[in-house]
Amino acid sequence: SILGVFLTVFTLLLDFMKRRKKWSHYPPGPVSLPFIGTMLYIDFRNPHLSFNQLHKKFGNVFHLQNCWSNLVVLNGYKTVKEALVHRSEDFADRPYFPVYEHLGYGNKSEGIAVARYGHVWKEQRKFTLCTLRDFGMGKKSLEERVAEEAGFLCSAINSEEGRPFDLRFLVNNAVCNVICTTVYGERFDYGDETFKKLLKLFENSLNEEAGFLPQLLNEVPILLRIPGLPQKVFQGQKAFMDFIDVLIEKHMETWNPAYIRDFTDAFLKEMEKGKAAEENGFTYNNLRLVTADLFAAGSDTTSTTLRWAILYMLLHPEVQSKVQAEIDNVIGKERSPTMKDQVSMPYTNAVIHEVQRFGDVVPVGLPHRTYRDTELQGFFIPKGTTIITNLSSVLKDETVWEKPNQFYPEHFLDANGKFVKPEAFLPFSAGRRACLGEQLARMELFIFFTTLLQKFTFVLPEDQPRPRQDGHFALINSPHPYLVQAVPR
Ligand code: HEM
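A: This is the predicted complex of the input protein with protoporphyrin IX containing FE.
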């Protein structure tokens, strides 16, 4: 009991010492309890739902406290835009969480998505954008790769012969193949057992990163020293990195600097430049982490959006028919869709945008961190605060969208049926840390969606319940599994 009293006094003292200062004009928020802060207010499996409730109570800018870390949550279009666009650099940093060390990140500027704001991140982001953009260079352009994969996907769906099936694996496989060929020069046949295993590992690793335990490990990193705990908590992630190591090692064996086959080759060529390149982040470990980031950020996001798209077509068959009429009219039944068709297809374009808005695939974005002391809507936010951008509250902002909680493609059409994009359409976020793969993702969504609807009509199997419209959250918001029948057109 003496030990108990000692531990309680020690914890309260520690808490008192680490508690935030009382800044004037700091954003409001729920009452913070000793040691755990405001963690009880958050459902870590569905943080976006908790944020929406707190948003109603405390307004567009409110604070939270995870144990001793300060968090500020930004809600609604005006607030998020002011922070990410008008004060872009102030909000451009990322928090570094102690669990990253166990996810393979050796220092704070490795990878892209979680790298601290600074010189190395800038160099890596620039290199990645340029390399993805220039990928045409005499070889297959990215668009051709996507179109080719869409063809393989249709053949795989055809072989289901109209039986009810879950699209998830095939669509995931197709989207991952686009990233894998671009980054590692490898594609995997549908049904390839090793690849199925990788996708399962990847899914596990997303589930590992969501939830309460990783948050607790970040706040009390000493727990990471418990023998075997990190290995147990992050086993999916470790296996995923092992797989990436095999792909990179294969490159090293066949690498020829005179012939750049893919992103990994382009990176290896930069590494050859020696010390200066090393200072810009071109190291072997960073090759693993940058390419793993592209894989992680670019696969599930896009394939989940496509699964929402097909689910909404099942729930709104009249929308599906209108898209198909436009496809038949502009592209016809024989020719494959290309990006040039997009401007002549306002309705299809509006449907894809509405799928992204209503599907709300990355509801709480990625966490940012203030790079310096700053001010937002009259509130003071100190340097080093973790910032959550509630993108869901932007995509469903009641002051912007006519029917925020309904699937309504007309949000993106004017009175004459012309495509319009409201500024609050921010599924890719905005500012310096905005999604690096937006162009590729938009190309994939258009080419895959139009190719699928050109070839098939998607219907709900007779004996199946109506699929749920609400999602399942594990860093990204995905539909609950559903079965579909693809009827060839
Ligand atoms: C970051 C959304 C596809 C690569 C992000 C962020 C969002 C997002 C919300 C966080 C931005 C922020 O912190 O403010 C999406 C959606 C996609 C998609 C909805 C598909 C529909 C892709 C693809 C790639 C990619 C295909 C890869 C080629 C990245 C990277 C970052 C990022 C590397 C981190 C950027 C940085 O920190 O500088 N994405 N993304 N994303 N995305 Fe995407």
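The two ends are 75 Å apart (CA to CA). The first helix runs from residue 2 to 18.
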